[in-house]
Design goal:
The chain has two domains: 1-64, no CATH class; 65-159, no CATH class. The protein has seven helices and no strands. It is globular, with a radius of gyration of 16 Å. The protein is an all-alpha fold. It is 70% helix and 0% strand.
Length: 159
């Protein structure tokens, strides 16, 4: 029964994410935390996200700005290294508070920060912040959304 519930939650949240373009991962993390232990929920959510994001890389590889990958990865690996040295399993209450707060936190980021991810320093900061939140809450939700590029329109027009 548990297996069927996890599969159904994964399918339903995939549809939510596909239709709305967001929220599926956060909902899935919440459901998995209700059904499983926190470590099992995080591992299973990570596996589901890896398949989801991997398929998007495969489908949209020609649209990826690969120059962002190195600084973002450096930030993400730095946080991963930091968390690897710490034995910490977040409480389910912390996970639910963070998942609930993430949409509001992303709205609070001031526009004057000019979070243009095409700049290496911004990509590095994004890797640090988003990966840190993922390590604490299991999902980053809409947190990466403000990191657009000032050249999105030019990139789209050139294709």
């Amino acid at each position: 029964m548990l297996f069927a519930m996890v599969i159904m939650a994964t399918l339903v949240t995939s549809v939510v994410s596909g239709v709305l373009g967001m929220a599926g991962g956060m909902i899935l993390m919440g459901v998995l935390c209700l059904l499983l232990s926190i470590p099992a929920a995080m591992v299973l959510h990570g596996a589901a996200q890896a398949v989801s994001n991997g398929s998007r890389i495969w489908l949209y590889s020609e649209h990826i700005c690969w120059s962002i990958l190195l600084p973002y990865s450096i930030g993400a690996l730095a946080i991963l290294g930091l968390f690897s040295g710490v034995s910490f399993v977040p409480d389910s209450a912390l996970i639910f508070v963070l998942i609930g707060a993430l949409p509001f936190i992303s709205l609070l980021l001031p526009a004057r920060l000019n979070l243009d991810i095409s700049r290496p320093s911004t990509a590095l900061f994004c890797g640090l912040l988003v990966t840190g939140v993922q390590m604490l809450a299991g999902a980053s939700g809409p947190l990466p959304k403000p990191w657009g590029t000032s050249s999105n329109a030019a990139i789209t027009r050139s294709r």
